[in-house]
Fold:
Amino acid sequence: MASRLYSTTRRLYIQVAFFLGQLGIGEIGTPTMAALTALYMTGLILLDVRQTQTRVTRFLPGRCHDALNRLMRVMPFSSRALMALVICWIKKQRWVGYLCLDDVIVEKAYAKKLPWAGWTYSFAKKRKVYGFHIVVLLWCSTDGRWRMPVAFRILRPKRSCAKHDYRTKLQLAEQMLKEVIGAGLAFEYIVFDTHYTAGWLTKVVGRLGVVWQGTLNPRTVVIWRGKRLAVSELAEMLRLKWRKRLGVRAVALRVFAPKYGEMRLVVTRNSHGNFEYIVSNDIRADLSTLVQRKHSRWSIETIFRDTKQLAGLEACHCWVDQAMIRHVALAMMTFVVLQMMRARPEESIGAIKEWWQLEAIRNGELPPLPLKACPTQLRPTA
Structure:
């Protein structure tokens, strides 16, 4: 297949196929499936927008668009097996990391036939949008170098599935966490936001022997020193101390909540005067550790941005269930492969994508010398 590509894009395809081979893609499918997967992911890296099957094969004529359609719709191919390859690769490296849990909205304004899509409220845009939710479980290394999606689920609306098949976001999160733990992935803790800090879910996570950390709703009832009151009322009674290293006013204490049991509570207030209630089942953790764990949740927000802008998460125009699920899996794998392509840990994913795009444009040629009429101070950017 590489021999049918243009010489400017052949090297990128070979690199993508090489890293997919390192992940072990040959173990979950045929050589044809592996080659088509590499071709599709090469298109997601090479193109910036509208990475459809037709446009990918126009720039990468290794196979026709019908072959990519068969890959996305009918070819034997498991998206969960693809995520399992990432878990196995992480286990081989023996890195130390943690898990982040959250969901993202993929807008599909005109996909009226897509069974996954519906009207939902977007907190980012402060309005309702037409799209679907993807619940993602992300593994991050403690040094900040790696952000690896290890599981995902697409939330199916009630109107498009039977009552006994419907699952909420919390139930999908429970399934993913049990799968990841069953696969033997090691992590120090799991962090999530207020929506996933539900009483029954945190109890399930605790019974699995996992350290969890989240944030409480201000109306959550807690018992402290024999008083039963909302956590927002408790925050008004506390004297918060300035933590110079963390940049916030905060205090840590141990409380009991009827929905959660005994837990560690950290109340913080930022420069705008807004309170935040950080909780964890790690009773012995100190204040700084809990605040830093809360800050580590931002990693999953950055992967949502990067997969949309750099890996074509919103590019699929198919309305078939199987095609949409597989596209999301391949977009996640593209994000993983882009990280594996880095020569230095500090390189960003966007810089790697831009470098490969420039390689395809330059075809090995050096850029022309700057014009002599250009001022000296502007020549580096001319």
Q: What stands out?
A: The chain has twelve helices and twelve strands. The longest strand covers residues 127-141. The mean pLDDT is 90. The two ends are 38 Å apart (CA to CA).
